[in-house]
Amino acid sequence: MNIGRVVAGRYEVLERLGSGAVFAVYKGRDRSSGRQVAMKVPLPELQSDAEFVRGLRGAVSSLTDLDHANIARVFDLAEDQNGPVLVMEFVRGINLKERIKRIAPFTLSVAVDFAVTICEALNHAHGAGIIHADVRPQNVIVSPEGVVKVTDFGLVRAYASSTEASARHLGRAVHYQAPEVAAKGIYLPATDLYALGVILFEMLAGSVPYPGDSVVAVAMRHQNDPVPSPRGLNPGVPRALEGIVMKAMQKQPERRYVSAGDMLTDLRSVRDAFRFGRSLSWSPMDVAAQPAPAPEPPRAPDKVPPSRPAQETKTVMPKREAEQPMPRQVYEDDRISPWLRYAIGLLITVVLLGVVFGGALWMATYTRPESNTFPNLVGRAIADAQREADKLDVKLIVREEFNDRFDPGVVYRTDYEPGRPIRAGRSVLVWVSRGSRLVWVPDVVGATAEQAETKLKEAGLVPGQVNRAYSDRAPYGTVISQNPRSGKRVDRDTPVALVLSDGPENVSNEETVPAEQVDAEHTWNITHHVRRDGLGPRQVRIEYEDSQGTSTAFDEVRSEGDTISVEVTGRGPTLIVRVYYSDDPIPVSERTQVWDPRR
What CATH number does residue 567 fall under? Predict the structure, then answer.
């Protein structure tokens, strides 16, 4: 798909983000709303697969109404001349799998926070009758601000409709598939919880629970091997967290958590224990695996004493009968009326009940902490919300995130429902807006470095990499070019790369090159050495940006240590080169090459 193309008369393609086993992913803009979107285009070999296209349309039809803060929304399935284009919410960041590769094992609190967020998304989807069926860390995107989004709900339905797509997908999914998927091909809500248990294990231990050399070997281990404990690889995992992982990963679905809500309750309990220093010595497996009481063993019969000679035998009365007491005689006092005895008994009963219930009412009324009604803080400045919370002796835990509907510093969500009673000392999580995520890039070409920095910060951006180049037209210290270009709408806090002028190059006895040749079409050499980072072969994509836009120079699989050298034709005095690995939308390197007309 070409950059700048408009799909369905609405979605403009801005740049290519990467390519996976089934889709190529592009960043786009919805011209109707102005928001950025992710555009997933089936790979060419799948665009002609009628079963896959039909399955994709069926899967997407039930997803457009799925709306949750931690779920990447599906907006549309647009029709292009080459086939369908899945239009989704654009999420800037890296997937959880890449984060696991870089820093796992995670600290316990971070791993639990991720698991809670994913479980909240699953709980919402299951409540709407939607099973994800492909929960894996590649489908969890984490933004630089820590916002977590679960993507690709329900697309397994499309993969399963095509032999080619299913084979491409299975290689990545098998490490997180529950036993019933490989054995029976069925998907349940418990299937998602199994996958979440695997992800939590991987975050805590730094590796998947069932590694293997082939898809079949991994699938067989999921079905037959005992459930491993994350404490075997990370002794610091507490017993409660170990139990959550092992309960979620039980082989039989009925032995796992009954629902995502039940698992979420245990995860939140562990999170609260970390925050408030509570005990983590309990385990959900204790309840799940508590054995039934063993039947009492039969008593051994009493030993029969050896028989005695006949002359010593005596007739003895059985003790039970001999010691049985005589029945007591009950005498009634005929002087008291039966009705009076009944009334006295009833009165005593009423008095005793009054004492019991009165004491309980006094305990409930005068010994419990005073409770107040929690106010509605949404739409109020965080300073005002904090003052209201202080009046109630309630602690606010503030989480700042981008929000397009609320101004910066305004509360837009709380985890405690307004109008409910709340006791003093309680903590409430509140989300505070950092303002719109998207801002316009100002024009800083011709400005000094200081002026450019001021304009970028005022616009919500930050100065990025700064390079220098000779220029016969721009005064020394002024900006020759910038990336991204002015007039584009980008994420807040995006770094803007600048090229500053070093003035004209003083070269004696050389002919001055006409200025019009600087903006002409030039041939550039691009070289990249694939990192030796232990990740093995990976898809390497090299993109370059000249004065006419962004193009792809190279997109193939290469091994560690390989050297890639390509020659491209670009227009303008600078060429910005970005290198991406696999489907990571964040480039591993970015540099600016400046054209030297005298070389």
Answer: 2.60.40.10
Is residue 185 classed as helix, strand or coil in its secondary structure? coil
Is 376 a domain residue? yes
Does 279 map to a domain? yes
Q: What is the rounded distance in angstroms from the CA atom of residue 238 to the CA atom of residue 280? A: 6
Residues 78, 226 within the same domain: no
Q: Are 191 and 178 in contact (CB under 8 A)?
A: yes
| Digitized pLDDT (tens) for each residue of the chain, 599 residues in all | 788 889 998 999 999 888 888 899 999 999 988 899 999 999 888 888 888 888 898 888 888 889 999 999 999 999 888 889 999 999 989 999 999 998 899 999 999 999 999 999 999 999 999 999 999 999 999 988 889 999 999 898 888 888 888 888 888 899 999 999 988 889 999 999 999 999 999 999 999 999 998 888 999 999 999 999 999 999 999 999 999 999 999 999 999 999 999 999 999 999 999 988 899 999 999 864 444 444 444 333 333 334 333 333 333 333 433 344 444 333 344 445 566 666 677 778 777 777 777 766 666 555 455 568 889 999 999 999 999 999 888 888 888 887 878 888 999 988 888 888 888 888 888 889 887 778 888 999 989 888 888 898 888 888 888 888 888 888 888 899 898 888 888 877 788 888 888 877 754 444 444 545 556 788 888 988 888 777 778 889 999 988 788 888 998 888 888 889 999 988 888 888 888 888 777 788 888 887 766 55
Residues 6+ apart with CB under 8 A from 472: 504, 512, 515
Could you list the beta-strand ranges (E) of 43-82. Answer: 74-80
In terms of pTM, does the model score above 0.85?
Answer: no
Check if the beta carbon of residue 154 is closer than 8 Å to that of residue 217: no
- Spell 145-181 as b/e; 16+ CB within 10 A means b: bebbbbbbbbbbbbbbbbeebbebbbebbbbbbbbbb
Q: CA-to-CA distance for 185 and 191, rounded, in angstroms?
A: 11
Which helix (H) or strand (E) segment holds residue 268: the answer is helix 260-276
* Structural domain for 57, as ranges: 1-90
Copy the structure tokens of residue 264: 């979420």
Among candidates 35, 13, 36, which has minimal Cα distance to 24?
13
Q: What b/e string do you get for 487-523 counting C-beta neighbours within 10 Å, with b at 16 or more?
A: eebbbbebebbbbbbeeeeeeeeeeeeeeeebeeebe
Q: Please list, in sequence order, all residues whose beta carbon lies within 8 angstroms of the beta carbon of residue 578, skipping any fewer than 6 positions away.
A: 542, 543, 544, 545, 587, 589, 590
What is the enclosing helix (H) or strand (E) of 540? strand 538-546
Q: Do 198 and 277 share a structural domain?
A: yes
Work out the widest C-alpha separation in the chain, in whole angstroms: 148
Q: Could you tell me the CATH number of the domain that includes residue 7?
A: 3.30.200.20
**Alpha carbon distance 209, 228 (integer Å):** 7
β-pairing verdict for 11-19 and 538-546 = unpaired
User: What gap in Å lies between CA 581 and CA 533, rounded to an integer?
Assistant: 12
Two tokens, residue 409: 């510093």
Instruction: CATH number of the domain at 394, please.
Output: 3.30.10.20
How long, in residues, is the chain?
A: 599
- In angstroms, the CA 472 to CA 3 distance is 32
**Same domain assignment for residues 38 and 74:** yes
Burial 221-236, CB ≥16 within 10 A → b, else e: bbeeeebbbbbeebee
